[in-house]
């Protein structure tokens, strides 16, 4: 089954947006399978964003992600990776559509409040990177038959 790694970044935590952000995925109908508040070590931030290592903003990005606790989440569902990216909105919050998390709640790329995996492969990779064995739960939501025919 498809899964994605969603993370409320330190600005989202500091600004009190954790509940609002979780709520958007919950209301959409995806299944939460992992959740924790976590102070990210530098090495983990560098591994998570390793594809951006050559970018000029990389050191700033690592400082940002390690500047305070983040909320790590695993979400599961058919089509969850692409749908979560749509719910989040494009990278630059000024260009993100109203109705998206970044479009509604942020103003700058360097403070864009939330991360979402960009492919099912990266969803699996990132969940394995951020969660330990036993931290991800399998369960059946009572609403399942009311979400999908
Ligand atoms: P994530 O969900 O966090 O991976 O964002 P994304 O997939 O929309 O964008 P991308 O993976 O290209 O970049 C990762 C993160 O790096 C962004 O979300 C920003 O926080 C940061 N970032 C990207 N481009 C810039 C930039 O030009 N300047 C700064 N300061 N940060 C950037
Ligand atoms: Mg990305």
Automatic annotation (TrEMBL):
The keyword ATP-binding applies. Its cofactor is Mg(2+). The keyword DNA repair does not apply. Major role in the synthesis of nucleoside triphosphates other than ATP. The ATP gamma phosphate is transferred to the NDP beta phosphate via a ping-pong mechanism, using a phosphorylated active-site intermediate. Its EC number is 2.7.4.6. GO terms for biological process: CTP biosynthetic process; GTP biosynthetic process; response to hydrogen peroxide; UTP biosynthetic process. One of its GO terms (molecular function) is ATP binding. The active site is at 115 (pros-phosphohistidine intermediate). It comes from Nyssa sinensis. The chain holds residues 88 to 236 of 236 of the full protein. ATP binds at residues 9, 57, 85, 91, 102, 112. It catalyses: a ribonucleoside 5'-diphosphate + ATP = a ribonucleoside 5'-triphosphate + ADP; a 2'-deoxyribonucleoside 5'-diphosphate + ATP = a 2'-deoxyribonucleoside 5'-triphosphate + ADP. This is Nucleoside diphosphate kinase. Residues 1-138 form the Nucleoside diphosphate kinase-like domain. Belongs to the NDK family. Keywords: ATP-binding, Kinase, Nucleotide-binding, Transferase.
């Amino acid at each position: 089954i498809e899964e994605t790694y969603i993370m409320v970044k330190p600005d989202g935590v500091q600004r009190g947006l954790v509940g609002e952000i979780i709520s958007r995925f919950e209301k959409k109908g995806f299944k939460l399978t992992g959740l924790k508040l976590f102070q990210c070590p530098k090495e983990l931030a560098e591994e998570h964003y390793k594809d951006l290592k050559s970018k000029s903003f990389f050191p700033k990005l690592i400082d940002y992600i390690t500047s305070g606790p983040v909320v790590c989440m695993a979400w599961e569902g058919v089509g969850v990776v692409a749908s979560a990216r749509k719910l989040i909105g494009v990278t630059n919050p000024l260009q993100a559509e109203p109705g998206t998390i970044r479009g509604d709640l942020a103003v700058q790329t360097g403070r864009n409040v939330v991360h979402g995996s960009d492919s099912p492969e990266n969803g699996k990779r990132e969940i394995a990177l951020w969660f330990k064995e036993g931290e991800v739960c399998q369960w059946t939501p009572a609403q399942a038959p009311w979400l999908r025919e």
